[in-house]
Predict the 3D structure of the following.
Amino acid sequence: MNDELIRLSADEQAQLIRTKQISASELLDTILSHAVETNEKTHAIVTFCGKEAREKAEMIDRKLAKGEDPGPLAGVPYSAKDVFCTRGIRTTGGSRILEKWIPPYDAAAIERMNNAGAILFGKTNCDEFAMGGTGETAAQQPVPCNPHDPERVAGGSSSGSGAAAASGAGAISLGTDTGGSIREPAAFCGAVGLKPTYGRVSRWGMLAFASSMDTVGPITRFVKDAALAMNVLAGFDSRDNVTVRVPVPNYTESLQQGVRGMRIGISPDLLKVTIMHEKGDFENFPIDTDITAALEHTVTLLEKAGAEIIPDIPMPNTKYSVPAYFVISRIEAYSNLQRYDGLKYGRACAQNSEDMYDLFAKSRSEGFGHEVKLRILSGLFLSQKEFYEKYYHRAQQARAMIRSDYDRIFDPNGYYRLDVLLTPTTPTPAFRFDRQGSDPLLIQYADQFTSPMNFAGTPGISFPVGFTETGLPIGIQAAGYDYCEEKILRAAYAVEQQLSSAQEAL
Ligand code: GLN
């Protein structure tokens, strides 16, 4: 029974609880002990909050006994990346500077999950302030590893969330995505990861990295669970002024509509890695051949499900994404991280300081890790007045050009009229911690297919479609237009359905 419970989707778990076939406390015990056990291998979770979780589960059980409705996710255990503030539960942001910080309030996303009856049982380890693509910049060691191969990274920066969800340590984990950090770990670990439209989910109470791109979304094992989590997470919040009053559809219900008649595009520009050299010339590199083959297979499945495939979609500005992301994300991070000075926020340095400025300098030197310092310094450099034209202005121009690619292909009156753009999530599968067998250049460009959507503000979902010859998970991404999460979920669901029925037939 226990193994079966772990394999269930959040939707099925909620059903069992609602129909009283199992109590929330029983389910929590099972998931929690599985999570503790697998954590020995994956190191996905940095802080367990079993006591708080048990109290919540008992409350859900009491409500159910009284015949009250405890919410759509009642009794479903979940974890959240350690960048979400959680009341009374340590929130480190993967950093030493917040090592012992206990927030006095819950982030909006946590609030919404909790109000829906979900039970937070742990905080997942992540790159420091979400800066990274492998989980390795986390201050808390050991860092998460890939559940499919402990020698390999789980992706990042929501590395622990990817590893937790993929290994059944809770069916849902909340992550954040600024350049690919939900979709990449999902792809590397064989999970589903949804980065919603910018402003679809409130970021209030989430530790900011690059505010013009930061988004909050779920990592799950099943597409339906991503839809279920979005039902709960999406919506206006007056405390995050980029959220909007666009109505929230019922994402789970619309999954049933399938993909018949959908126009799904493939772009050759997102089937290669393009690197810009200093003098402005470009060089193309092929991506992993197993990933290209997986994309082709996904296309045939979608075609079989009734979608119309449109090849040769031009996305000419994708190639600017990684360099422009470098500039914009560093400048915004530099600004956002000023608050951690040992006085307003963050742990003060252990040594004596001469004055306030000395306290700031020492606290920041002690509290931040190498990658964060590097990014703060790059941001400081890149935002100097004399470099404005050369870097920031050009990066913003590139960003506008990238956005125009998306406006053009999804324009309902335009030439392409796409509903979904299908791309690989990453150019390679998960790489080894020692980087053996991987091209360092391709690692640097790991975000080439994910960061454009953070610039455009449009949604993307990575879903698992199989494995490489060496047994590593492959993720494919369905990208859509603003507030069209529902369509990309439908595309991912159609593929998932066919893959699982094919597997059952074996
Ligand atoms: N890998 C990217 C970076 O290091 C993206 C991180 C993210 O999305 N949070 O900045």
Observations:
- The longest helix spans residues 388-410.
- The chain has a mean pLDDT of 96.
- Residues 201 and 234 are 5 Å apart (CA to CA).
- The domain at 259-315+409-505 is CATH 3.90.1300.10 (Amidase signature (AS) enzymes).
